[in-house]
Fold this sequence. Notes:
binds magnesium ion; alpha/beta; Rossmann fold; four-stranded antiparallel sheet; binds adenosine-5'-diphosphate
Amino acid sequence: xxxxxxxxxxxxxxxxxxxxxxxxxxxxxxxxxxxxxxxxxxxxxxxxxxxxxxxxxxxxxxxxxxxxxxxxxxxxxxxxxxxxxxxxxxxxxxxxxxxxxxxxxxxxxxxxxxxxxxxxxxxxxxxxxxxxxxxxxxxxxxxxxxxxxxxxxxxxxxxxxxxxxxxxxxxxxxxxxxxxxxxxxxxxxxxxxxxxxxxxxxxxxxxxxxxxxxxxxxxxxxxx
Length: 224
Ligand SMILES: Nc1ncnc2c1ncn2[C@@H]1O[C@H](COP(=O)(O)OP(=O)(O)O)[C@@H](O)[C@H]1O
Ligand SMILES: [Mg+2]
C-alpha cells in the first residue's frame, strides 16, 4: 500500500543536520506497523512525508505503486481525502460537535449525503464501542473515548492507510495498550494499513511490525 523509497528530509539546526535520511519502509495492508524511536529520531518527519503533508528532499513516496510525493498540493490534498486517515495526539476533535457529527465530517467532505454519513458514522462508532456516546461532545468524554472517536473518524471513510502520531501520548498508561489493541483489530479486520509513530512500550507491544529509527535512520525492522 504505502512504500517509502529512500526518503530524506533534512533540517538545518545550528549547523547540524537533523531529520530523516535514506529511509525505505513499507506499511502493508491489514497490519499495524509502529515507528519506534526516541524523541528527535525522525518519527514525525517520516509520518509527515507518508501523509503527504511534507515533501522529501530525496527519494519517493509511493501509494498503490504510484509516485505521489511531488504532485501539486491540490492533488495531494485530494489523495489525503480519498486514501488516507489521520489520528493525532489529542484535542483534534471539533469541540462544539457531537461524536457522531465529528465522525460524519470527513464522510460529508467526500460527498456522502447526510443520511449516508450518519449511517456510516454510527457504524464506525459502534466498531470502537462508543454506540452509547453518539451525542456526547468531546469535552463530555474521557481522553481514551476521545481518541476512539478520532480513530472512528479516521477509518469511517475506509482509507487505505491510517497514520497516527503518538496517539496515546495524552492517555494514562493503562489506556494506551487497549487503544492500540483496538487499532490492531481494525487493521486485521478492515484490511487498512496502520502506521503509528510512538515511543510508548504499550504501543510497540501491539505492533505486527516495528520499524526502529535512531538519529533519522532506520536501524531495524522487526516482525512480531
Ligand atoms: N520543521 C522543523 N524545523 C527544524 N527542525 C526540525 C523540524 N521538524 C523536525 N526537526 C528536527 O528533526 C529531528 C527529528 O524530529 P521529529 O521527526 O519531530 O522526531 P520525533 O517525532 O521522533 O520526536 C529533530 O532533531 C527535530 O528537531
Ligand atoms: Mg514526533
